[in-house]
């Protein structure tokens, strides 16, 4: 059916855009530059040289401003998407479900989750992620031990001109070194570090729960509509006048023609639930094992690299996470970051 083809294209497009935004927001500029360069090489066969140069400068400048400078663009987009989804939920889904006598607490659940999510969003985006300054540098250096592989003593940040504490990293977007750096999140317009990692985890989980609740209620509403109309036991006539039993493709098309905005919203929310669910599972894995996104990405390089400065060049380096202390203590560290005084007491 033409409708199903169009709808599948829409779902794939939303998923692709969402995945690219999530991917690009956590990757270095070289990743974006590489893909722009590859595209320009393909287009160079048909586009004049002068136009190529202009397009190259514009594309690189736009990508740099989007992902490598602090900007409220993605924050505004984040709020706009939530407003659009909840506007449709309030305008149509809530009213229809109320007429079908859905329980009031169930219908209010997405709003409660939204309130919690927005609270975590504000706390995470406005919080100091753990910026390393000259006044707190001496104490932060003592919080974590250097593992000698990923983090080595004596490494100086060329921008901040300070020795890097273990598990810290310089954020090129914010222009500061961040203690227990995880990643820079364009959706929050802030880094995720030791001081706001707990709020970020709660923000992510509450956002996933909100999308899941919206999808579940909307699906329940549509299933009620199907049951009340007895569509599954009905028949329809095709273009040749032949009678056929109602199948899933026809049912989806019928629901779209009857509730177009609700079906489009449902498709978007389901894809969002899948993407956020996967990312939430990954973030929980990092929390349980006491790793950051930065450390996890770096650890992929070890085991295949054969040279680190403190090891012989012919010896394969195997990274071992020395910061994991068990699931419960790892979670406690997320919600109550350690200090230099606490480390002294333990030693």
UniProtKB/TrEMBL annotation:
<keyword id="KW-0333">Golgi apparatus</keyword>
<keyword id="KW-0564">Palmitate</keyword>
<feature type="transmembrane region" description="Helical">
    <location>
        <begin position="72"/>
        <end position="91"/>
    </location>
</feature>
<dbReference type="InterPro" id="IPR039859">
    <property type="entry name" value="PFA4/ZDH16/20/ERF2-like"/>
</dbReference>
<feature type="transmembrane region" description="Helical">
    <location>
        <begin position="200"/>
        <end position="222"/>
    </location>
</feature>
<feature type="transmembrane region" description="Helical">
    <location>
        <begin position="103"/>
        <end position="124"/>
    </location>
</feature>
<keyword id="KW-0449">Lipoprotein</keyword>
<dbReference type="GO" id="GO:0005789">
    <property type="term" value="C:endoplasmic reticulum membrane"/>
</dbReference>
<keyword id="KW-0472">Membrane</keyword>
<dbReference type="GO" id="GO:0019706">
    <property type="term" value="F:protein-cysteine S-palmitoyltransferase activity"/>
</dbReference>
<feature type="transmembrane region" description="Helical">
    <location>
        <begin position="262"/>
        <end position="288"/>
    </location>
</feature>
<keyword id="KW-0256">Endoplasmic reticulum</keyword>
<keyword id="KW-0012">Acyltransferase</keyword>
<feature type="transmembrane region" description="Helical">
    <location>
        <begin position="6"/>
        <end position="24"/>
    </location>
</feature>
<dbReference type="GO" id="GO:0000139">
    <property type="term" value="C:Golgi membrane"/>
</dbReference>
<dbReference type="GO" id="GO:0006612">
    <property type="term" value="P:protein targeting to membrane"/>
</dbReference>
<protein>
    <recommendedName>
        <fullName>Palmitoyltransferase</fullName>
        <ecNumber>2.3.1.225</ecNumber>
    </recommendedName>
</protein>
<feature type="domain" description="Palmitoyltransferase DHHC">
    <location>
        <begin position="153"/>
        <end position="299"/>
    </location>
</feature>
<comment type="similarity">
    <text>Belongs to the DHHC palmitoyltransferase family.</text>
</comment>
<keyword id="KW-1133">Transmembrane helix</keyword>
<dbReference type="Pfam" id="PF01529">
    <property type="entry name" value="DHHC"/>
</dbReference>
<keyword id="KW-0812">Transmembrane</keyword>
<keyword id="KW-0808">Transferase</keyword>
<dbReference type="GO" id="GO:0005886">
    <property type="term" value="C:plasma membrane"/>
</dbReference>
<dbReference type="InterPro" id="IPR001594">
    <property type="entry name" value="Palmitoyltrfase_DHHC"/>
</dbReference>
<keyword id="KW-1003">Cell membrane</keyword>
